[in-house]
Amino acid sequence: MFNPRFLVVSLGNPLPKYASLHSAGHFALNGLVNALRQPSFHEMKIGKQTCLVSQGPKYTLVQSPTLMNVSGPFVAKIWQEMIKQHDASSMSLVIVHDELERTLGDVRLTAWDRSHRGHNGLKSVKKSLLQTKFPESPFARIAIGIGRPVERDAATVSKYVLDKISLEQRRVLEEAVPFDIAKRLVELEDEWRTEIEP
């Protein structure tokens, strides 16, 4: 009996202090609770840190409470906690993160082993958690487009991703994007089911 569970973790800098495009994953997870008809977020201690968690029968949504660039050890800890409670072969890890190369609101399911393109949050997670140690667990990424400035120098890009988010950008991330993420999660489950059930 195929009964998959998903640990869905958003990367970003902690809200509400860092309400920027770099925290697009957190904003999207806020709305994903409604899109998946999940219980509301509540504060809970997980991975030895207090963070916002929404726990349903299939999906556990977690907003990483750490700064973006050091997300890895936290994600590795909560993954270890989850596979102690549930068989690793029934667990999938999905990381939700911002993506400069796509237009605002464009949502893509991305293979785990694709390049992190200099995304420090992804770099940190991949360094802390090796997919090869969990061959029976699908690891995947859901990239949310945030657009990018015309100039590509590091200072301009950094200012763009870290500036305060506009109300319109936030509306796209919290209201439109979550329904696309929900669709990608179904796609991921269908792919997984096809691999397991010949």
TrEMBL record:
Entry keyword RNA-binding: yes
Lineage of producing organism: Eukaryota, Fungi, Dikarya, Ascomycota, Pezizomycotina
Top-rank taxon: Eukaryota
Broadest EC class assigned to this enzyme: hydrolase
GO terms for MF: peptidyl-tRNA hydrolase activity; tRNA binding
Documented EC number(s): 3.1.1.29
Species the sequence originates in: Metarhizium rileyi (strain RCEF 4871) (Nomuraea rileyi)
Similarity annotation: Belongs to the PTH family.
Record's keyword terms, sorted: Hydrolase, RNA-binding, tRNA-binding
Pfam families: Pept_tRNA_hydro
PROSITE patterns per record: PEPT_TRNA_HYDROL_2
UniProt name for this protein: peptidyl-tRNA hydrolase
